[in-house]
Design a protein that fits this description.
542 residues; alpha+beta; Amidase signature (AS) enzymes; 2 domains; two-stranded antiparallel ribbon; 16 strands; 32% helix; globular; Amidase; AS_sf
Length: 542
């Protein structure tokens, strides 16, 4: 019983019949009798009083150390300060610890769903006002401690709900290798400025492929670590099961250095309870170019999906040959359940993602952004109309699934466990499995405007995550490695980067990094598949 029940209760917060109306919303129309109604109203008013009391308490915030790490020149970039279309959300400078060693001399940008104290956050939308955090995300503090300079936040797609790069309300991002083509999403801006050579490292977030897809399109190395290896504190969530943060860089060694800097247990994030102690990993110093004896599986289902472009398939298979030349034992393998991954991810993400968007996420310990919650709730006609179709679709899908299939989420999560177990069994025999990151190279961006067809807005993203989303629900580490160029299906004279995805067992990042480092040391990916006219690299100022 509430301790507030013995105090005067504000029954004016609850009208007569409210309890019955609430039950009617879930199909219960005769759950309480007329004689019980008044008492349930009184109990409902009591819990409303408790809610009002909680809202009046001061919030608990891990405030940023802005004296040690002052923020300089925070600004929304002018057009002449933009790169690759509109890759930047905000530009600023936070100088890293001069005594930091891991990332000394490196520049880092952050996806615009990563909290930086004093910097407004858009989250790719104008449906709600930008909000400003008092805290730095854990990964921000860690890269600063490691000596990196943080130089800005970069565009992310609308509520992180797209793998295209034209859905952000803050502008379109172009591929650094061909103007007018997608940079991928939802970490679009970060991948563009890293792939274009302007910033050393981007920190992105990945719920269905949002690190690996843009890395594949932009010629970057992008790692989605094991779920919980990198803290998610201070990063806007889609769903706690799918939430992953990780590095994007132009080399495996920089990815490994950043992973050492940002990984490890965080007292605020219960997802990290199984992670190593922060500062104890040695991914970068342990890198080795010898993979002799490593056992690698070519996942048949990852290559044979009907959406896989033949040129992408051929480029990745050619890259696999290099592993054989380096002494690895490469074999074809099959996991039939892999083909069910997109369907399983879709149901899990639509239901859990909708609950998060509606403010109903629960079941995790952590520090959460009350400023973000205040900005996005409640949804109204005006705010919903401003959402990009992919975000609208998520909410519509989720609400329908919750209403019509009340036991579906439980069944889906059981299948997630089956998928996870299937891969873990495979990793008892194989060190890694390999497949294309994306089924095709970057498609053209779409000049979509509000009022245009929702289906036309969604088409460019359809099918892109057939090989990536599955490892978000299973939590396995996966890295996209650039392995050459392939022609655009729209214009064969335009050649765009191809990504090969390396997937390892849970907590086996070192094997992935070693294999990627060995391949990278033996090959120059920019010289593979460049016959014909390669997409012209954009100037830094469009």
């Amino acid at each position: 019983m509430s301790v507030f029940f013995d105090s005067p209760i504000s029954e004016d917060l609850v009208a007569a019949g409210d309890a019955e109306l609430l039950l009617a919303n879930i199909g219960v129309t005769n759950g309480i009798s007329a004689t019980e109604s008044g008492e349930y109203r009184q109990l409902l008013a009591a819990v409303h009083d408790v809610a009002e009391h909680i809202l009046q308490l001061p919030d608990y915030v891990a405030r940023a150390d802005t004296e040690k790490y002052p923020r300089e020149q925070i600004r929304r970039p002018l057009e002449e300060e933009q790169d690759f279309g509109h890759a930047w959300a905000h530009r600023f400078l936070i100088r890293g610890n001069p005594g930091g060693e891991l990332l000394r001399g490196k520049t880092v940008c952050l996806k615009d769903n990563v909290a930086v104290a004093g910097v407004p956050q858009f989250f790719g939308t104008d449906a709600i006002p930008a909000w400003t955090s008092d805290s730095d995300a854990t990964v921000v503090r860690r890269v600063l401690d490691a000596g990196a300079d943080v130089v800005g936040t970069t565009i992310c797609e609308n509520f992180c709900n797209s793998t295209s790069s034209f859905t952000s309300a803050q502008g379109t991002v172009h591929n650094p290798y061909a103007e007018g083509y997608s940079a991928g999403g939802s970490t679009s801006g970060g991948s563009a400025v890293v792939g274009g050579g302007l910033v050393d490292i981007a920190i992105g977030a990945d719920q269905g492929g949002s690190i690996r897809v843009p890395s594949s399109f932009c010629g970057c190395v992008g790692l989605k670590p094991t779920h919980g290896l990198v803290p998610y504190t201070g990063i806007s969530s889609s769903d706690a099961i799918n939430d992953h943060a990780g590095p994007i860089a132009r080399s495996v060694s920089d990815v490994a250095l950043c992973l050492d800097a940002i990984s490890g247990r965080d007292d605020f994030d219960d997802r990290t309870l199984g992670a190593p102690i922060h500062g104890s990993t040695q991914y970068a110093s342990s890198l080795q170019s010898s993979i002799a004896g490593m056992k690698i599986g070519i996942l048949t289902e990852g290559f044979e999906h009907r959406l896989i472009d033949e040129n992408v398939k051929a480029t990745v298979l050619k890259a696999v040959q290099s592993f054989e030349q380096l002494g690895a034992n490469v074999q074809e393998i099959s996991v039939p359940l892999h083909l069910e991954g997109p369907a399983i991810w879709t149901i899990q993400q639509r239901i859990a993602g909708t609950l998060g968007m509606m403010g109903y996420a629960h079941g995790r310990r952590g520090l959460f952004s009350t400023a973000y919650e205040a900005a996005r709730q409640p949804w109204t006609n005006e705010t919903f109309q401003k959402l990009f179709p992919s975000t609208k679709n998520t909410i519509i899908n989720g609400l329908s699934l919750i209403q019509n299939y009340p036991g579906l989420y439980a069944k889906t999560m059981n299948l997630v466990q089956q998928l996870r177990d299937s891969y873990e069994e495979l990793f008892q025999e194989y060190d890694l499995i390999i497949m294309p990151t994306t089924p095709f190279v970057a498609p053209p961006n779409v000049d979509w405007k509000r009022g245009d067809s929702p289906m036309e807005a969604l088409k460019p993203s359809m099918g892109i995550t057939i090989n990536t989303a599955i490892f978000d629900v299973t939590g396995h580490p996966a890295m996209s490695l650039p392995v050459g160029f392939a022609p655009s299906s729209i214009d064969p004279s335009v050649r765009l980067p191809v990504g090969m995805q390396l997937v390892g067992g849970l907590w086996q990042e070192q094997k992935i990094l070693d294999a990627g480092y060995a391949w990278e040391s033996a090959n120059d990916w920019k010289q593979i598949g460049v016959s014909g006219v390669q997409g012209q690299k954009l100037p830094t100022k469009l």
